[in-house]
Amino acid sequence: MLLGFLTLFSxxxxxxxxxxxxxxxxxxxxxxxxxxxxxxPPLAAHTTELIKTPEGRAHLINTLLFGxxxxxxxxxxTYNGVMPAFxxxxxxxxxxxxxxxxxxxxxxxxxxxxxxxxxxxxVANARSVNGSRPTPQQVGSNRTRINVP
Length: 149
Known about the structure:
Number of domains: 1
Number of strands: 4
Mean pLDDT: 90
Helix content: 40-55%
CATH class: Mainly Alpha
Radius of gyration: 15 Å
Low-confidence stretches: 5-12
CATH superfamily: Cytochrome c-like domain
Order of helices and strands: HHHHHEEEEHHH
Structural class: mainly alpha
């Protein structure tokens, strides 16, 4: 029994970005990153706008780590769903799913030329910054200050 649990646990840790996305994100953000009207914003053709600034890059990581709550405007539309925190994921898993999203659905063609993949070390740093853990509301409030279409 213990061996079976350890095997399943190790498989979960080794999951790739596409697997993690399908199992944890697709229900809300859609199979193709299109989002859900009024609730969950699209990730296709939007995360690539966020990644262009240091604040946007940090926001993407913080959203997965700590969740997000509060209205957000994307391309003129308002979304007001609640994003759960995925802090139980390893740093590698969070980097994997974010890098998948940044490269899926044509996003790879929209990335800036100097784009570098999100690393597990960046996630670890965000996880441990001064030991402070922002609330989902603070993450949402911080998002409103990032100027993207």
